[in-house]
Amino acid sequence: MNLIDIKGVSHAYRTPSGPLPVLAGLDLGVPAGTFAAVVGPSGCGKSTLTRLVAGLMIPDTGEVRLHGERVRSPRKTVGMAFQNPVLLEWRTILDNVILPLEIVAPRTSRASRVARAEELLALVGLSGFEGKKPSELSGGMRQRASLCRSIVHKPEVLIMDEPFGALDNFTREDLWQTMRDLRAKEPFTCVLITHDLRESVFLGDQVIVLSGRPARTQRVMPVDLPADRTIDILYEPRAVAMLHDLRDEIRIAQGREGAH
Amino acid sequence: MLRRIGVPVAAILAFLLLWEAIVRLNGWPNYVMASPSDLPAAYARFWSLFLLGGWQTLWRTVAGLGLAVAFGTLLGMAMGFSRLARDALYPLLVGFNAIPKATLVPVLSLLFIGQHDFNTVMMAFLISFFPIAVSVGIGLSTLEPEYRDILRALGASRVTIFRKIALPKTLPEFFGALKVAVTLAFIGTNLVEIVSPHGRGLGALFQSGATNGDYPLMFAVLIALAALGILLYYAVVFLERTFAGWAEREAT
C-alpha cells in the first residue's frame, strides 16, 4: 500500500486578478520507504504540492492521504527541508538540529536529544561542528545541518523542496550521496521537488513529471537502478536513456514539443 | 580593552578642550557662554540638587521607556501578525509621531493636573514607543515563510512559533529601535521638566539656571544629561550583547 496517496488534486490561488489555477488533476502514489522525485517546468505548482503533503494547505478538490487517512492539518510525522536551509542564527548547529524534538517530543531528556542529533550530524559528516553557529559554516554544510533537522524526529515522510538548488554542482553531488547514505540508515519516505533531472534519477525510485501550470501528472517513470548507486551510474547507458526520456517529457511539459 | 575605553575618552577630552579654547579665544565672559572650566564649580555648589534631579530624571525616563517597550512591542506584534491591523494603524501612528510633542505638555498637565511624575512618564512613553512598534512590526511581518513552516509543519502553535523563532529573530531590530527610543525618552522627560512650571529633575534645575542667568549651571545640567544619556544607551548595548549578541558581526 502507498504511504502517500494523492488523487485528482486541483487547486487555485485567489489573486487580485482572479483565481490562478496551479494544480489540475494531480495524481501521485508513493509506497512506504521509497523515494519520489518530482520534476516539472518552473512555476508549475511543485511547491504547492509540498505544502499539501505537509498539511499546511488543503486542496480545493481531490484528496491527499497519508496511510489512507485524509490530511487536513499539519502532523508531527512530517519533516521539511527547503532550498534556503533556514537555520536559526542564534542557535548552535546542534541546537538547530534539536529544534523539531522540542516541538514533537517536549518531554524527552536533553541528553537523548543531543545523542540523536550527534548521531545524525556524524552521518552527514558534521561531527565537530556541533557548537558552531550557522554563519560559520559553508552553504553545503548548512544544508547538511538542515537535512539533519528535517529528519531528527524520525518523520515518516520527508518533504524536500529543491534542497540542493542553491549549491554548486560538486557540492550538490556530495549531498546526493549523503542523502543516499541517510536513506540506508533512516526509514523515511521521501518526496523531493527538483529542477535537476540527474538528481531525480540518482535519488528517485520513481520520477514524476508534472505538466506546465496548471500541473497534472504527465508521466510516472520508475527508476530501476540499484539502491547503492554511485555518481558513475549516471553515465551508464540505462541512466542516460532515462535522462533523455525525461528531457523530452520536460519539453512537452513546457509546451515546446518537437522544438529540439 | 584599553582601546575601547581610551579612544572615546580621548575624543571627549578633545571635545572639552576645543570648547574651552573657543570660549577663551573669543574672550566670552561666562554670562554669554560657559566653558568647561566653569563646570566643576557649578557641580560642587549644587551637587545635592544634581543627584536628586538626576535620579528623578533617570527613573521617570526608564519608567516611560518601560511602558514604551511593553506597548510598542504589543502594537508591533499586532501589526506584524495582522495585515488588517497594519493597514489600520500605520497612518494613525505616523500622524501621531509627526505631532510636536511639546504641544501635548499643556494637554497632559490639564488632564492630569498636579500628577507631575505621571505626566513626565507619559511624555517619555508617548515620544518613544513609535520606533519600537515599527521595528517589531516590520521584523515580524518580514519573517520568511519557511521559518514559520519548519515549525508549523510539525503542528506547533502560533505561540510556540513566536517564542522559538519570531521573537528571537526580531531582537536585533528591537534593540536597534530601543537605542533610538532611549534618547527620545530622555527628550520627552526633559521637555516636561523644562516646560511645565514647578518641574522636577534635571530639566527643572536647567530652568532655574536659565531664570537666574547662571550659564555655568545650565551647561553643567546639559553635560549631566548627556552623561545620563550615554549611561542608558550603554545599558541597552549591554542588554543587546546579552540577548542578541549572535547578530553581531566581527568588524573587519
From TrEMBL, chain A:
InterPro entries: AAA+_ATPase, ABC_transporter-like_ATP-bd, ABC_transporter-like_CS, ABC_transporter_ATP-bind, P-loop_NTPase. It comes from Rubellimicrobium aerolatum. Residues 4-237 form the ABC transporter domain. Transmembrane segments: none annotated. SUPFAM superfamilies: P-loop containing nucleoside triphosphate hydrolases. This is ABC transporter ATP-binding protein. Belongs to the ABC transporter superfamily. Keywords: ATP-binding, Nucleotide-binding, Transport. Signal peptide: none annotated. It comes from the Bacteria. One of its GO terms (molecular function) is ATP binding. The lineage of its organism: Bacteria, Pseudomonadati, Pseudomonadota, Alphaproteobacteria, Rhodobacterales.
UniProtKB/TrEMBL annotation, chain B:
Residues 54-240 form the ABC transmembrane type-1 domain. The keyword Transmembrane helix applies. Coiled coil: none annotated. The chain crosses the membrane at residues 58-81, 88-114, 120-143, 174-195, 215-239. It comes from Rubellimicrobium aerolatum. It is found in: Cell membrane. Belongs to the binding-protein-dependent transport system permease family. InterPro entries: MetI-like, MetI-like_sf. Keywords: Cell membrane, Membrane, Transmembrane, Transmembrane helix, Transport. It is a multi-pass membrane protein. This is ABC transporter permease. The keyword Transcription does not apply.
